[in-house]
Write a structure and sequence with these properties.
Order of helices and strands: HHHHH
Strand content: under 5%
Amino acid sequence: MERGIKDEGFVRKALDDAKSDDGRWIANQACFNGASDATLDATARAALVTAVAIYKEHDKLQDEHLKAALDVTTVGEARALIDQLSPLVA
């Protein structure tokens, strides 16, 4: 079944609606402040993957960085990946 651009449009509209202040609840710092072995909040994980995908699309990161983001499950893994990637996107 052909869906046209319905799915793409759904995501694009959300990104168009997003404002810088939305980062406060999408990837709230509290989600990254827990114990290293704590499971990363699903919304924070999705935000991390999305951020890495955006950086990749803008040629600041590579495929392996996106794979690493997709593999993150814990708070500690998220913090380590962010620490590793932050200098690359600065």
